[in-house]
Design brief:
Layout (H helix, E strand, L loop, with lengths): L1 E3 L2 E3 L14 H11 L1 E3 L27 H8 L5 E7 L2 E6 L3 H9 L4 H6 L5 H9 L11 E2 H8 L5 H10 L4 E9 L5 E10 L1 H5 L1 H4 L6 H15 L5 H7 L5
Antiparallel strand pairs: 1-2, 3-5, 4-5, 6-8, 7-8
Helix pairs in contact: 3-10, 5-6
């Protein structure tokens, strides 16, 4: 996506392009193949959902709207959806998520990261709200409910993004809020939970390698599928600054 003269210009492909995605199932297959994929374009050509879908299909509320696919795939057992790529949204497969968690947590659990000053007090308050047990398993709550329980207003969205970039949170589904009568209303809102709540502690923390080794595997996987990508573009695409 580019901004030209104050307007968003979507990159994309023709519907007849052999690499065009036509459904959530197509996207699921691609994420499983590559391992991870941003929603919107960056500096690596082809490395996004945006570039593999027709630009006119977005935000149409019609069948085939790629914006709606995130709601379909967020609860899928093989996929994590969240702001994982340079603070922007995208997908990581269950197979590859432990590598991202291993590198980005740098050997820490969330409590140790807080004690060493690498996690803000606001981030700790959000994770406390999710009632995590010793395995980091807890609740799945709508973002508005997390905000209320944590009593956070200023900077709330930024803290949620930071926790996703650190791999401590993902968007597990999208659902409507409910009124006092239990009736759904309004826009669909993201529910967030820890990856350990979705998959279990062992599945997320199963890497068995040093954090830098996980980073190198991520880099090599991108180079495998996008051989023309520069090292700078690779690091930027996955939101890693070294």
């Amino acid at each position: 996506m580019e901004t030209i003269a104050g307007e968003w210009i979507m990159k994309g492909c023709r519907r007849t392009d052999p690499e065009c995605l036509h459904s959530p199932d197509d996207l699921l297959a691609l994420v499983r193949q590559v391992g991870f994929l941003p929603l919107f374009s960056g500096d690596i050509p082809g490395f996004s959902v945006e570039e593999r879908t027709p630009p006119g299909d977005w935000w149409t509320d019609r069948p085939g709207d790629p914006w709606a696919w995130r709601q379909v795939l967020a609860p899928h057992p093989d996929i994590a959806y969240g702001k994982f790529f340079d603070k922007k949204a995208g997908f990581i497969s269950r197979e590859w998520f432990p590598a991202f968690a291993n590198y980005r947590r740098d050997g820490y659990d969330w409590e140790g990261m807080y004690e060493d000053g690498k996690l803000s007090s606001r981030g700790k308050r959000i994770l406390d709200v999710l009632e995590l047990n010793e395995n980091a398993e807890g609740l799945g709550l709508l973002s508005c409910e997390i905000r209320r329980r944590a009593a956070l207003e200023k900077g709330f969205e930024g803290v949620l993004t930071d926790l996703q970039m650190k791999s401590f949170l993902l968007m597990s589904c999208f659902r409507q809020r409910r009124n006092k009568l239990g009736e759904p209303y309004g826009w669909h809102v993201a529910e967030l939970m820890t990856p350990e709540t979705k998959w279990g502690w062992d599945a997320v923390n199963s890497c068995g390698e040093k954090p830098d080794a996980s980073l190198e595997r991520i880099r090599e996987q991108i180079r495998k599928h996008f051989p023309g990508a520069s090292d700078r573009a690779v690091l930027k695409a996955v939101g890693i600054k070294k």
